[in-house]
Amino acid sequence: MSEKPYEGPLPVATPETKPFWDGARQNKLMLQRCGDCGQAFFYPRPLCPHCLSRRIEWFEASGRGRLHTFVINHRAPRRSPLPPPFVVAIIALEEGPKMMSNLVGIAPDPTQIRCDMPVEVVFEHVTAEISLPRFRPVA
Fold it and tell me: Helix, strand, or coil here: 110?
């Protein structure tokens, strides 16, 4: 039995985001860090949002974090990345930044999901070029 092909929207890599998407394709969660103030941040950009430095470097994040907040979406948009119901989540990464993604590997049931639960990144390979980071509860 084959899975239904991915029908959701696909990101388009820009010069600023290409290292992030290249890393995702290799099952790596890549973040940026400022070479001056040392703060990690997400989403990718050409200067530090904390001190405005242009000394930015990429590094591989741990892929671990905690569920900061979530919503269970019961009515999906026309081109939904996941079948409803699905969980839209904000993940507080170990390195500091927060990242919006989906919570997978658990029933979209508010009695099963709790804020501050530990999560880890998993990658959904949706095309040969694009892999999407999702998060699942740590076993």
Answer: coil
